[in-house]
Amino acid sequence: MFTHNLKIAFRNMRKYFNQTLISVIGLAVGFTCFALATLWIRYEMTFDSFHKNAEQMYVVYRPDIRNQTGYSRLTPALMAAHLTETFPEIESAATFSYTKNPFILEDVEIPVTIIGGDSSLLKMFDVKIIEGSMEFLVRGNNMLAITDEKARQLFGNENPIGKTVTNIWNNRFTICAVVTGMSGRSNFDFDFIGRIWNNPQYTVIKLFSDINLEAFEKKLYEHDTGEELGNISGMTITPLTKIRYLDPDIEREVRFRHIVIFAISGLLVIVCALFNYLTLFVSRFRIRRKELALRMVCGASGQSLLTMLSIEFLFTLLFAVILGCMLTQLAHKPFLTMSNIQMYLTARRGACVHPFSTDITYLKG
User: CA-CA to 136 of 20 to 30 Å: which in 18, 67, 75, 317?
Assistant: First the structure.
């Protein structure tokens, strides 16, 4: 019976080829748009989510009338120590600088990111020393620690400890340690670590898991840091895992809300194409009423007719999904290049990647 219904489904799809083709293409395009937008949304929402207890980590913002949003992530260098001493709800805190400046290596400018902090920074981001000393945390010297990944990029299999690098202002720094970098995508990914530099400071805090977050936010907002830290009040916090798409000052080509609109648009294309196909499918009943009546006369039950029509309907959706898989595979690399995100779909050999698949491999940006 199933084979018979399958043959009838193929015959009718061929008979109404134009209608079927339009419906399949419309659904496939909707699947592709929605899948790529979902991939992008997932990319934006996974920044810093790899940290241990990432849901308890927050970035501190202070009021700043010079900023269009009225708030800024820039804080005094002593903010972490002050907050830890003042609020028992804070488990740990770290204030650090974050700069992107090129280094000169063999007369070639190499873009690098330097994060400056103290031992609290290593604890906050779970950075471990692979080899070398902790001299890079001593104030006043020109020592740096390099991540193992950057060391391989710059020096290959050579031991980087003891080697020197020079910035564009001709300041020389000696590498004294190799450390682990961020294990995933982060808003504060880095290549080198040194002591706090004279650059803008950021403060990240980790709260205890059992606190009342709303009460803490109110308490923080009403707190005044005192004259030593510039009498800062009205401070707020934002989850570390959300600043990628909540902080308007983070540079990116497309805002998060635009990506969501793109995903909703793809979903609407699916809905419209599906509604259009259902309308065409129902309209065929009038054309096929003689055929259906003849089948009833020949002994076909209402349930068997429903099964036959359902198989035809489901096969059209199946073809749309398969075409959507193919379009997603063809479009995802140009799409990722255009959107400037570092992740890609992978398919097992001989398998098709469904538009909503979670079989995704991430590249470190």
Answer: 75
Q: In this predicted model, what pLDDT tens digit does every residue of 286-333 receive, in sequence order?
A: 666 666 666 665 656 656 666 766 777 787 888 888 998 898 888 878
Name the helix (H) or strand (E) containing 218. helix 213-222
Cα–Cα distance between 80 and 120 in angstroms, integer? Answer: 9
Residues near 46 by beta carbon (within 8 Å), at least 6 away in sequence: 184, 185, 362
- Say whether pTM exceeds 0.70: yes
Gap between the Cα atoms of 310 and 25, Å rounded:
20
* Pair type for strands 201-207 and 143-147: unpaired
Residue 303 burial class via C-beta count within 10 angstroms: exposed 0-12, middle 13-18, buried 19 and up:
exposed
How many CB atoms lie under 10 A from the CB of residue 23? 24
Q: pLDDT digit string (tens) for 182-207?
A: 988 898 999 999 987 667 789 999 99
Each domain of the chain, given as residue ranges in start order, spans 2-46+268-362, 76-231
